[in-house]
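pasting for the record
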Amino acid sequence: MKIFDTHAHYDDRAFLGEQEFLLRQMHREGIEYIVNIGCSMESSRVITELVKQYDFLYGTAGVHPEDAGTMTEEDLAELEELCKADKILAIGEIGLDYHYDEPPKEIQKKWFVCQLDLAKRVKLPVVIHSRDAAKDTLDIMKAEHAGQTNGVIHCFSYGVELAREYLDMGYYIGIGGVVTFKNGRKLKEVAEYTPLDRIVLETDAPYLAPVPFRGKRNCSLYLRYVAEEIAGIKGISTEEVCEATFENAKRLYNILD
């Protein structure tokens, strides 16, 4: 049973000293592909080098909204170069995060739009982060989309109505450990509503580990629990979920066998 983890952060300090062992162990145990997601200029630089070390590891380049406060035009130009590197598959993660007061919303929106424009120029999909910013994210996505971008709404945290909007625009829905939580009712409803051919599996490792590992360091091996939960919700086999989401992820990231 092959699994594709579409969103992880193995460059995170939580994996310091264990990164190589874990990545190789997970690959031996059925994690066929992993995409390591950029969230700052520094992580994007690191990832372009990290992916060279593992055949099964790919990456993205982008600046997370929490890091947008220090972003510059020079950074944007560097991102454009980084995304041309081998095995860099998308721009991300980018978007809006209003959970905290910083950076200011207008700054976040400015660099979100700039990175969406970059994705259109270089013809890469986008990995979208949206937290407590439902309306502004959707408004910007609709204004900037124009049929020219595709990608995934990462760690989807809204309801069915917003899922419908993004599905209608051609985006995939990223589902991870939260779907296994008792208080993950909204995401369970979204998983039930979303067609199987539009779901991708993701960990956000080291964050958001599924039950029974909730609160611990997440890793790609735990995606089996996410697949099992989705299978139960949809009344199908875990194998069917893994096979479908594997193919979905390859389409999302334009990976050709």
